[in-house]
């Protein structure tokens, strides 16, 4: 016997979220789809630090101080932790409007703007919002169907509106917004210190070796485990990587330190939102560097409004065949059939309201031989009580 069994398939909301993001670990990790440069970042950091710990640190720990590799390890672990926290977290994505919400917003906009004559452009969809006695314009996002909050912007790479959008950083493989900006700043700051640290002690290593055996002999020296590779070639490679990294990472750290002091974002600085022709004052700045730094780096971190791990249940009907054990005399629980093979009416009352004939009533499956003698009946007959004995007569 085949029966239809309804099974509920558990689907997480991150599987149905719009936008161009990738999710791992059941929605706990959120990144952009373009992650190639992020892997390059990991390779450069891990490779440079591995060479430094494998060769220079052992020599410097003996010749100078064992604290040198310890401090380098602390900087390395802190830089990696902040990098992964920036790359794997929600930057502050704003959920898109539901179809009913989008229709209601469109209706409000049409009621406000009125009918636009044919051939004319509709007015811009903007709402005015007051912050610190200053008017800030809220722009409408045609993709997300929402009026973006102040300082939010739509990322064209991830295809999402991000709260307090700073920029999309391919080196970390994610957008930088309200929920991960402080970790991004701490990452580039710690990476700058780590780069300067490795660059400095690589030069110290070459200088110490040159004082003992001479510079030319230092260039010819080879480690025992790598007889075909000059140890100094690896050191020069580290120096070159750190040198070119200094120009980019240290400069980027200085730029974002300037932005943090003004409580400003990269997006606002590029667009000239507060330094353009209008000379509008930044309404988010407290006028104090310490207060601005405390708000950006030490303020409360808002929770994610993106319900990534919420559950969506979808029902799936599947046919299953079940076999029920029956005895040798068991019958299918079907309607009684007449002599012609058609099913008889088994209801207790017909459509016209009259009681059915007795022949239409299903009878027990026991045979007359199995019934007690005083209970044996002929099909279609009813027992009539006897006046003398009270027993059924046939």
From TrEMBL:
Top-level EC class: transferase
Full protein name: Palmitoyltransferase
Listed GO biological process terms: protein targeting to membrane
GO cellular component terms attached to this protein's record: endoplasmic reticulum membrane; Golgi membrane
Membrane topology qualifier: Multi-pass membrane protein
Subcellular localization, as worded in the UniProt entry: Endoplasmic reticulum membrane; Golgi apparatus membrane
Annotated region described as Disordered, given as residue ranges: 315-394
EC number: 2.3.1.225
InterPro entries (alphabetical): Palmitoyltrfase_DHHC, PFA4/ZDH16/20/ERF2-like
Assigned keywords, A-Z: Acyltransferase, Endoplasmic reticulum, Golgi apparatus, Lipoprotein, Membrane, Palmitate, Transferase, Transmembrane, Transmembrane helix
Domain Palmitoyltransferase DHHC stretches: 137-271
One Pfam match: DHHC
GO molecular function list: protein-cysteine S-palmitoyltransferase activity
Family named by the database record: Belongs to the DHHC palmitoyltransferase family. ERF2/ZDHHC9 subfamily.
Transmembrane segments: 37-55, 67-84, 183-208, 228-250
Domain notes: The DHHC domain is required for palmitoyltransferase activity.
Highest taxon of source: Eukaryota
Keyword match Lipoprotein: yes
